Each structure stands twice: as structure tokens, then as C-alpha cells.
Amino acid sequence: TYHLSSPASISLTLWGSDPLRATSSSLSSSQSGLSSVALLVKRGRCKKVVVVAGAGISTASGIPDFRTPGTGLYANLEKYNVPYPEAIFNIDYFSNDPQPFFSLAKFLYPGGHRPNYIHYFIRMLHHKGLLLRVYTQNIDGLEKLCGIPDEKLVEAHGSFATASCHLCHTPYPSEECAIMSDNVPTCSFCAATVKPDVVFFGEDLPQKYFLHTKDFPKADLLIIMGTSLKIEPFASLVNTVGSSVPRLLLNRHAVGPFERVPLRRRDHMELGDLAETIRRFAEFLGWNGEIEEMMKDREALVGELCL
Ligand code: CNA
């Protein structure tokens, strides 16, 4: 089985003190990666696109990520009273004291935030028949809310849509988890705490995650967006596409294999604000108007579903 593992152990074992590793400041965006990848898409060379996404796709919706200094959740956990940032998503810590997670969950709970242009860009990939699958680490449900169908979506770190006892795994409807109330819900069989099926450090990933064994070898373009690629096993997925497959990183800074100099052949990256980068990408592709239209069409439904 696969467990989420602590980011600290990953950076020690995986990246260590690699002399080839560059600081993000010593790297600039590759030679117009965005336009060359857009050209490939326009020429019909990429029809099985896999998207790998992280918290950076939702910051434009007002949800902080984990690791951005200053604004990230890890820099703002004082009020939750945890000994170290990852404790809030650690299953053993939760077992002893679920309160910090439930306090934070109120904020992350779906309903308070709307999908942004980036989510709709991914849906447009599907609309154009180009999306093989999107693998997201996010638990905010915004991919679903923007209309990406279930069969195209892998919520690799789970979601708030269902809940279960963290000890005996008895399933509960998500409403019973009562995230928005101040009571910590308990299992009627074993009295342990019921938690939303968000994957914590030390827990198994959902079965659907294993679709990656079929998808990544088939992909003809990998787009990685808004993730620090620090959490395993998710982070290593990006190394499982064929070596001739173009990989495009869209992020504020270089991460994972994109920190190496020189970049692998067919690796591209575009560094900067993701919302702005995706708009430029959509413009290169000639999709901007259609995405705006799609957002407008979905607005009423999103409005109804949001608080
Ligand atoms: P992370 O480690 O916080 O990394 C986010 C990455 O996105 C960083 O490299 C940032 O520089 C980058 N980034 C953030 N905003 C922007 C922006 N506007 N433009 C460009 N780049 C940007 O988060 P990861 O997703 O890598 O870590 C995985 C964790 C985070 C998962 O287990 C999630 O459950 C968890 N998380 C999810 C949410 C959510 O659901 N929205 C929010 C916070 C954390």
C-alpha cells in the first residue's frame, strides 16, 4: 500500500545535496515553453494530456497554499496550536487531538470558494477532448465544482465529499461530519473520531489514485501546475511519463525535477503567477473567449452551490 509520507523525509532522501540542483533564482523560464507547447497542442500532437495540480491552482480562489512564505497555511498555524505544521494533517496527531484539524477544516470546507480561470482551463482541455486525466492534491473540491466530470478527476489526497471513522473506517455521510459545527463527530461503533476522507500523512491513498499506472505511460503531454512536489508518492508521478513526452511546469518557482540544470529535453517551464500564465497559455491556444463563456455559463450553478 502507499502512504503519504512526510515532506521532510522526502527532501532528505530524494534530493539531498545534489550538486546539479539549482536554486529557483538561478533559473529563468525556458525558451518560451508556453508557446512551444501551445504549438504542439494546436498541431494535434497532444491528445492525451495529464494534468498534475496542487494548492497553487486555488490561491486565486482565495485559498492559501501550504508553503508560500507569509501567506501559506504553514506560516499561519499559530492559532491552531500545533507543535509543527504537518501535525495538522498527521493521523497519529489527529488521533490524540482532532481539534486543530477541525478548526482548519472549517476554512477549507467546500462551499466558501469558487473555481477560478485555472480550473476552467483544465475543464476546457476536457471539452476539447484532450484531457486524459487531472490528478489533484487539492481537497477543496473546486475541480468538481467547475464541472470536470468524475471520470476525468483523481482527487489523490481525498476530499470532504465522504467521511469515515479514522479507526474502524465505518463510512458516514459527509453531513454527519458536521465540519461547520463545533462538535467533533464520533463513531457510533468504536467511539473514535469520524473524519472527512481527506488523506492524512500516514494514511492510504484512494483506490482511484492507482489509475496513474495506466494513465502516465499513455500521456503525450504532462502539465504540472501550482505544486511544490514535496509530498510523496504524488510527487514522483511526474517521473513516470515516457522520456520523450513533453512536461510543462507552470509555477511560481522551479520544483522537483525542474530544479535541475540543464532541464531534461522536452521539459519546459513558465515561472510566475499561475492565473496570469494560464491566461497567456489560453490566448496562445485561442481558447480565452471560450473559457470566459464557460465560466459565465457555470456561474449560476456555482453560485447556488457556494455559501
Ligand atoms: P504547496 O506545497 O503549498 O505548494 C504550492 C505551490 O504552488 C508552491 O510551489 C507555490 O509557489 C505555488 N503557487 C502558489 N500560488 C501560486 C500562484 N498564484 N502562481 C504560481 N504558483 C503558485 O502545496 P502542494 O499542493 O504542492 O502540496 C500538497 C498538499 C497541499 C496537498 O496534500 C493538499 O491537500 C494541500 N493543500 C490543499 C489546498 C487546497 O485544497 N486548495 C490548500 C492548501 C494545502
From TrEMBL:
Residues 24-288 form the Deacetylase sirtuin-type domain. Keywords: Metal-binding, NAD, Transferase, Zinc. The active site is at H157 (proton acceptor). NAD(+) binds at A55, G56, I57, S58, T59, D65, F66, R67, Q137, N138, I139, D140, T227, S228. Its cofactor is Zn(2+). It catalyses: N(6)-acetyl-L-lysyl-[protein] + NAD(+) + H2O = 2''-O-acetyl-ADP-D-ribose + nicotinamide + L-lysyl-[protein]. It holds the Pfam family SIR2. InterPro entries: DHS-like_NAD/FAD-binding_dom, NAD-dep_sirtuin_deacylases, Sirtuin, Sirtuin_cat_small_dom_sf, Sirtuin_class_I, Ssirtuin_cat_dom. Zn(2+) binds at C165, C168, C187, C190. Belongs to the sirtuin family. Class I subfamily. This is NAD-dependent protein deacetylase.
